[in-house]
Design brief:
Oligomer: single chain
CATH architecture of the largest domain: 3-Layer(aba) Sandwich
Mean pLDDT: 97
Bound molecules: pyridoxal-5'-phosphate
Helix content: 25-40%
Length: 360
Amino acid sequence: MTRPFNFSPGPAVLPEPVLRQAAAEMLDWHGTGMSVTEMSHRGKEFMSIYHAAQASLRELLAIPDDYKLLFLQGGAIGQNAIVPMNLLRGKDRADYVNTGDWSKRSIAEAEHFCKVNVAASAEGSGFTAIPPQSEWRLDPGAAYVHICSNETIIGLEYHWTPDTGAVPLVADMSSDILSRPIDVSRYGLIYAGAQKNIGPAGLTLVIVRDDLLGGALPTTPSAFNYQVQAANDSMINTPPTFAIYLAGLVFDWIREQGGLAAMAERNRAKAALLYGCLDRSAFYRKRVVAADRSLMNVCFHLPDPALDAAFLEGARAAGLLNLKGHRIVGGFRASIYNAMPIDGVRALVRYMQAFEKRCG
Ligand SMILES: *Cc1c(COP(=O)(O)O)cnc(C)c1O
């Protein structure tokens, strides 16, 4: 069976070998007679899956020893509140950089807990460019500086790491984590919902530096208290066991492909194909400046929205699924995460060129 190419922004495509392995192991994991979904989270079978996934991700991201890796729930939206609850540490304010809709969601949640200083905003550019750090007005008394490394809805991505000095840098990396190597030591905390580039929905990753633990608001629920979860293998409550198992298979798949450097090379090649097609065309429109374009979410518009339905219908018939843009911005979005093969991008480019010939 050949499957269509799925450009969904999330939950998103997973590597086919991972899905096949999970299917093969679904009724009987490694001769235990149990499905992973049926195992105690504290039993030795699941603990081996958990520790292997932790070790695999630590190796992939080269996570330094003074960082905890937590497998939580509640998604990135949950973290938007959980981060201030844990990281204010007695301070009353935090810096946020607004680069789009996910940044705005983070700001709105943080405002329940502290004064938010919007240190920089892409609003002036119509959210088409990341404000350069020279324009940021950082507050040295802020508890942390928050960024969204990839704005999934508009396709606006940092290709550099901000320098926030002694103030910890916090990043929502939900849609570009594991797409390239990063220097974890430049961040105080990184969080990501799994369903874009890691695995199934339900798992939320948090990578947090040890010295930031221990100062949570007293009202913080224990399931969302980083220090409590860190001291309990993220098992103060039942963790999302099946999502952790599948994410572990994805980590192993990435390592077999050559790790994050190999992923980055592939992702650059895929994005170059698609942006090349857009750049050569006078038909397709795009908004984000070239330097800040996302390598994960490629957004574009047609000159006349009356053509949108025909574009989508033709794409579906050609085996190219879920290209509709987010309802906030309209148009189209091709999400080309790690698990999207370059053949999928080639097929999309062929379709777009043929559509332009017919309708342009
Ligand atoms: C998808 C997404 C979210 C929302 O994540 P949930 O897991 O649904 O809470 C937040 N931030 C970014 C950057 C995203 O791409």
